[in-house]
Write a structure and sequence with these properties.
2 copies of one chain form a homodimer. By secondary structure, chain A is of the alpha/beta class. Helices cover 20% and strands 32% of the residues of chain A.
Chain lengths: 415, 415
């Protein structure tokens, strides 16, 4: 079938179509221990259950004093106070500071009653029971109020936040040992095509091993989701439909990685149309690599027909599937969401680009002097050799004609 | 102890000192199945064991022909060939193309003997047994040679490469089912300080929960390493030494997360000195947050005394520990190694920075119109509130005095 008969759409439209078709994940919540919550997405706003530090606390090593006793103190006119005790770490401060007195205190120690500031040890000199202060302090200096770190009832984290090391630490600090997170989405992956054999099998004449199942399973895991592999179906409509329908029933989304021929793509389109409503929304994307991508939604679940070429399949995964999975995971979009790691490099040759489509040019990278050089990887197909050599890609937006040799480009790192 | 008596070093020097002290990981190799190799680091150069695709292959849907039969063909003067068969996907091509003949072929099909090019289906019109070609082809057009994707014996991946989805796919495509990778490094994490209690315990007066163990365990895992938690030791030299020595014996690196007081730091320094040679190399870094970091190497293993403040501890982890772990994992440094994800934003207020140290200013981020605004998070301490709100950091290098309100900055995303 020639492409003229197919419905092609632009990438942002494809993303929007799919995101718009997704069900609300709000009721897909599970409770996990905070220790296991790393990488999970918060399913409810999290409000601080208590004040932190919970007591008036010194932020310096030094002496807890009444600030009034230090007013005007300086190198030329030191103040002298009587040291009447020491606050031990992790213990209550069982003393009271009255006029003319000071108490030894460490960073993190409880402020003793009567004291309202801490003089840093660097500004003191101890001699017997007397401490000399060469700098004055104001009330509150070097002291943390009981709710100054975190106030009870304040919003700590919003729903949709991914819990990373800082958040896991904060949960521990507040004694929150269990947390509500969204369920991890499951993505079903299968390959189709009469020429495809499992990686463990020696290919016969005209056969090739299944690259995409392994690559896409790894990509799904890297995106923080669970992958389920459904193997290879030959070019048999009924078998593909049965397997796909099973995958769609088991999973939150399905990727059918196509054989390379147009015939298989047509068959996959038929299967996607038969799996549920509304069915196939588009037959391709104005994207290179990745044009022959089938976009379907079947009864509220996304089902995608991916190109057979491995580099194309992974490109479509990154561009289309990653935003989709982010939404399925319940991630709230925020500043920086989806921004890739980038390096600046100079193109070592020109690349032309067809108008009317977004092009992702795979490049290898190497250092030359202090700068990076990006070499476009050209070839007849986006096969394994491209996968092996590409360390980055350069985005050539629609309307830009290509990249010039010597041009400085932002290279998105592929990982 | 005042800082004047301590040895402070710059961050790059600290990284270099630690990296230089590490043992060679070359003999720390294990063999894993390719399916489980995702995220692992390749321990040997990987050479392609066979040619791919391994047969002469069409890269288009169309007709396999003798290019000579199409010379000069065009819209005005089409060439006509007799269609004598079809190559089925995944099957050998059991026919021969002689002068005046063509064979139907799909993308990925085996080229039949006699044919040396493929005419794309878009440039043909079939009528009965005769195909009309409106465009000529040259020998080799739309055909992939047997070793054109990957040539047997060629270097596919170099030692030290992290195996991501593209590499996992390539391994599958080549039928490589097991792969040699470096052992995953183990990092021991412990907290010290008389005021620290486990997260599950209600803190008494003057006590706080252990934030750093949970945060650092998560950070170690995020860095692709294994974390082992050794709990909390109080401010007791012998107990800390016993636990630390055990951790150092079990693990490839140890982090002792300090109590907040100078006394605990001194004790930790003593323990690090007693654990092995050469012992403590530096007592701090010209870095904010993160200055009070103890850097030691004990009998070939790095041992670090981290600041007690959680945001400081995580900053030191990112700046110092992540490069160290990358080397312990056997990762070969390459273009883009260690480059963080970044967004551009405008500072919504000025921040001054002390000369002579690298400063990492934590910021929260929000959208205003089309642009991002970065708000520096200021406060007395790098406590839990800072952790909770910071979504990024702005790097103020040594020698730069600060950031101006309205200045455009690169914000490194914290995750």
């Amino acid at each position: 079938m020639a492409d003229d008969f197919l419905r092609l759409i632009h990438l942002p439209q494809a993303v929007e179509l799919l995101l718009g078709s997704l069900p609300d994940v709000d009721d897909e919540v599970e409770t996990v221990s905070s220790e296991e919550a790393h990488g999970r997405v918060l399913a409810r706003d999290l409000v601080a259950p208590e004040d932190l530090p919970g007591f008036e606390r010194s932020t310096m090593d030094g002496y807890a004093v009444r600030a009034a006793d230090t007013f005007g103190a300086g190198e030329g006119l030191p103040a002298y106070l009587e040291v009447v005790g020491e606050v031990l770490m992790g213990r209550p401060a069982d003393m009271r500071v009255v006029r003319g007195q000071a108490v030894r205190i460490s960073t993190g120690g409880v402020m003793p009653a009567g004291a309202d500031a801490v003089v840093m040890v660097e500004n003191t000199e101890l001699s017997g029971n007397t401490v000399e202060l060469v700098k004055g302090v104001a009330p509150g200096d070097n002291v943390l109020r009981p709710d100054e770190d975190v106030a009870r009832g304040s919003l700590l984290f919003e729903k949709g936040l991914v819990l990373g090391p800082p958040q896991i630490g904060a949960l521990a600090g507040l004694g929150i040992d269990r947390v509500d997170v969204f369920r991890i989405p499951v993505v079903g992956v299968m390959s189709t095509g009469d020429e495809i054999v499992p990686p463990g099998q020696v290919p016969g004449p005209g056969q090739v091993r299944d690259v995409n199942s392994a690559a896409l399973v790894a990509a799904v895991r890297q995106a923080g989701c669970e992958a389920r592999a459904y193997g290879i179906t030959g070019d048999d409509f009924d078998r593909l439909l049965t397997t796909s329908a099973q995958a769609l029933s088991d999973c939150d989304a399905v990727i059918i990685s196509g054989g390379s021929s147009a015939g298989v793509r047509d068959m996959t389109a038929g299967v996607l149309a038969a799996m549920g409503r509304p069915g196939v929304l588009a037959h391709g994307i104005y994207l290179k690599p990745g044009k022959p991508t089938l976009i379907a939604v079947c009864d509220g679940k996304p089902a995608l027909g991916f190109p057979g070429n491995p580099a194309s399949a992974l490109a479509v995964f990154r561009e289309l599937m990653v935003p989709l999975l982010r939404k399925l995971k319940g991630e709230a979009p925020g500043p920086g969401t989806g921004v890739p790691r980038k390096v600046e490099a100079l193109m070592d040759r020109s690349v032309s680009s067809a108008a009317g489509r977004l092009e992702l040019v795979p490049v290898s990278l190497h250092l030359e002097g202090d700068g990076l050089i990006a070499s476009p990887i050209l070839g007849k197909s986006n096969l394994i050799g491209t996968l092996a050599r590409a360390r980055g890609q350069v985005r050539v937006p629609i309307g830009v004609e290509g990249l010039e040799q010597g041009q400085s480009v932002d290279v998105e790192l592929l990982e």
